[in-house]
């Protein structure tokens, strides 16, 4: 049998490939559009890569007739909020149309489990408490709206066609191989290049940070023990304000706060994300292992050793 990973040359997908090859004897293949945020150097050796766009018609027949695909981990997505605000057309194509194409392929070729990797941003912002799997969706930007739509299509295909699907909604990931447009790698790379670190608004936005290795372990547990038709939140239980996170990285890298440059806040910027993970803890037995301090130190070391 074959495991198909979409978006495997990107950040989370590539880390998952490195994780899953150590945890299964099944054949593993990868699909990736190879956008600016992807890098074939991220891929483990001996992984078959199909460079194609899931939003295009007919791509999957070539792949599914060659391989007995029974499990899909769907990571492929446009994910940078700033880009979605500037132009959301690619987000609609990849995150919505691409997901629907993949769902249709799963039905046609009798896929046995479809793991849809989504985000906690579909819930919107929360001032107090944490989002559970029963929380209403309230996306606040085009990116999160496109991911919310993809979640709804996945669950609609489960309810209408009995597609064996599971949805996971993760908090902010960080770790090796992340493209430098996101907060943590941008901060690290700017420090390495002696450039100012842009911080939106007053930097008081709160995020829950999930080390990517913890995320990969959670997805493997969901695959093995998760219940079809269910949703599972995956969070790091590491909430911190953006400005405090930047200051922490500066401290680890031996630089001072003069490198911080406050810039105009983005439109519709969510103030706080917080993810309740009791369901995955109680039903599957997963919980995050890595502290933010450990994860940041490992991430900084990776970027220092991969300046190119």
Question: Could you outline the blueprint of secondary structure elements for this entry?
Answer:
Blueprint: E1 2-6, H1 11-20, E2 27-32, E3 48-51, H2 59-64, E4 69-74, H3 81-86, H4 89-108, E5 113-119, H5 142-161, E6 165-170, E7 172-174, H6 183-192, E8 197-200, E9 206-211, H7 212-225, E10 231-234, E11 239-241, H8 242-252, E12 260-263, H9 278-283, H10 292-305
Parallel strand pairs: 1-2, 1-4, 2-3, 4-5, 5-6, 6-10, 7-9, 8-12
Antiparallel strand pairs: 9-11
Helix pairs in contact: 1-7, 4-5, 6-8, 6-10
Outline the structure in words.
The chain contains ten helices and twelve strands. It has a seven-stranded parallel beta sheet, sandwiched between helices. A three-stranded mixed beta sheet has the order 7-9-11. The protein has helices spanning 11-20, 59-64, 81-86, 89-108, 142-161, 183-192, 212-225, 242-252, 278-283, 292-305; strands at residues 2-6, 27-32, 48-51, 69-74, 113-119, 165-170, 172-174, 197-200, 206-211, 231-234, 239-241, 260-263. The radius of gyration is 19 Å and the shape is globular. It has two domains: 2-174 and 210-237 and 277-283, NAD(P)-binding Rossmann-like Domain (Rossmann fold, 3-Layer(aba) Sandwich), CATH 3.40.50; 183-206 and 239-273 and 291-305, UDP-galactose 4-epimerase, domain 1. Helix 1 (11-20) packs across helix 7 (212-225) and helix 6 (183-192) packs across helix 10. Helix 5 (142-161) links the parallel strand 5 (113-119) and strand 6 (165-170). The chain has 308 residues and is of the alpha/beta class. The mean pLDDT is 96.
């Amino acid at each position: 049998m074959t495991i198909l990973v979409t978006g495997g040359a990107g950040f989370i997908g590539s880390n998952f490939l490195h994780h899953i090859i150590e945890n299964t004897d099944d054949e593993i293949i990868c699909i990736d559009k190879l956008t600016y945020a992807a890098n074939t150097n991220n891929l483990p050796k001996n992984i078959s890569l199909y460079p194609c766009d899931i939003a295009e018609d007919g791509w999957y027949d070539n792949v599914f007739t060659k391989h007995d695909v029974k499990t899909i981990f769907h990571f492929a997505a446009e994910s940078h909020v700033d880009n979605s605000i500037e132009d959301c057309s690619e987000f609609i194509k990849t995150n919505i149309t691409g997901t629907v194409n993949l769902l249709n392929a799963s039905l046609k070729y009798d896929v046995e489990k479809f793991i849809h990797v989504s985000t906690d941003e579909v819930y919107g912002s929360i001032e107090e408490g944490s989002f559970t799997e029963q929380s209403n969706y309230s996306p606040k930007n085009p990116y999160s709206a496109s991911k919310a739509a993809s979640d709804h299509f996945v669950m609609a295909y489960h309810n209408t066609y009995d597609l064996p699907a599971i949805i996971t909604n993760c908090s902010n990931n960080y770790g090796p191989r992340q493209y430098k447009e996101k907060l943590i790698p941008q901060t690290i790379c700017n420090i390495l290049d002696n450039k100012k670190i842009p911080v939106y608004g007053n930097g008081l936005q709160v995020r829950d940070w999930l080390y990517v290795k913890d995320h990969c372990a959670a997805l493997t547990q969901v695959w093995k023990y998760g219940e079809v038709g269910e949703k599972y939140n995956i969070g790091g239980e590491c909430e911190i304000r953006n400005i405090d996170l930047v200051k922490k990285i500066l401290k680890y890298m031996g630089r001072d706060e003069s490198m911080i440059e406050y810039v105009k806040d983005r439109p519709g910027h969510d103030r706080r994300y917080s993810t309740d993970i009791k369901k995955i803890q109680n039903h599957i037995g997963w919980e995050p292992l890595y502290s933010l301090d450990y994860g940041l130190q490992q991430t900084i070391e990776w970027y220092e050793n991969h300046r190119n």
